[in-house]
Amino acid sequence: MYLSETRSSDRARAAGPRSRRSLPRAAVSGTVLTLGLTSLVTDVSAEMLTAVLPVYLVTGLGLSMLQFGFLDGLYSGATALLRVVGGYLADRFTARKLVAASGYALSAVTKLGFPLVGASVPGIGLLLAADRAGKGIRTAPRDALISLSTAPEHQGRAFGLHRAMDTVGAFIGPVVAFALMRLLSTDRGTAYDAVFVVSFCIAVVGVAALLLLVRDPFRATRARPDGVSVRAGLRLTLRPVLGRPSLAALLLGLATVSDSFVYLSLQQRTDLAIGWFPLLPLGTTGVFLLSAVPLGALADRIGRRRILIAGHLLLALAYLLLTGAVPLGGRGLIITVLALHGLFYGATDGVLMAHAGPLLPERLRTSGLSVLQTSQAFGRSVSSVAFGAVWAACGPVTAVRGFLVALLVAVAAAALLLGVRRKAAATDPVAGPWA
Description:
Elements: H1 10-13, H2 17-21, H3 30-60, H4 65-77, H5 81-92, H6 96-110, H7 114-117, H8 121-148, H9 155-183, H10 188-213, H11 230-238, H12 240-254, H13 259-270, H14 280-302, H15 304-322, H16 330-348, H17 351-356, H18 365-394, H19 396-419, H20 422-425
Helix pairs in contact: 3-9, 3-10, 4-8, 4-18, 5-6, 5-8, 5-18, 6-8, 6-10, 8-18, 9-10, 9-14, 12-18, 12-19, 14-15, 14-16, 15-16, 15-19, 18-19
């Protein structure tokens, strides 16, 4: 349902079948397209930083794997609770666009801080925390806008298209970072600084795109909508419709190795030259870009649970290859692992949001999605610290083996948690695509 097409009460907007019949029948709305364009530009900036950050911290600044694991965990989700805060504020004041814009702006400003703090680990930690705080604040309002502007039966397709557009930016970002590193290779410090400054400039364009192009269907108001409160959010969290997916997201996040460690593992196993490191994310991104929309549409047809589980099994296969259990090395190992990594994201990124969104009341849609995202982010934050500690103590192969076992256990648990919706599918037209 386009949010601007109704001034009905919150009770009417959360009414279920009657409200769903007023949703647009088109698979993709203008809101999804404009948000996708905003994410595209923003991700060029974000992925420039992501592409160089591991090698910058480990090789450029000489951080240990334990230190990097701590910072990567901070980057992945130490500010996860701000997702809940952002979701609550967006629902309370019906100002999803403004809350999202504040998150984008905060992340943009942090890019200029890296050249200033130098090799200071606390300084880098604060910048990473601020950057992820911005992401935490903006993600739930953005996803809520996508969910609320899309019919339930098209959620997977809409999120898939948004993630695909987002991934175009993620594909361009490492290319820009690589080009800057190559052009300024005679002075590594200057090259890194150039990446950070250009990343900031592009991030500013992303904020402008959000403010100018994305139409906020809700009017910001100081009046709290009926039923929007901390207590209502907590009650929603305890319900199986949100509690079970959140627990599944937490378990899967705890067993997921961060992208940075995947790329560092590949670099060490293949002795890839440092100058080529920023291009590794392009393999993941390219496959993700090609697979996000088809897999999102497939999830709508055959079941989001099946696609989610299959995606994590593909990730487990990538971990198996990184352990050296299969005699594959060099270019073949890089191509295969990055392809599996990209398919994993194509099959999972957005699928949980596509499932949970239509099942949540509209007045609490942002808050509910923020809880789901917080569970996943917290799990991945703990995962990064644990993986870095095991790598430092026992080496990368042992670390990957341990997480491979943990991932298989988490997948089995998640399949059980999410499988309970099968009975509801027979009578619930919204739950049906999840069965």
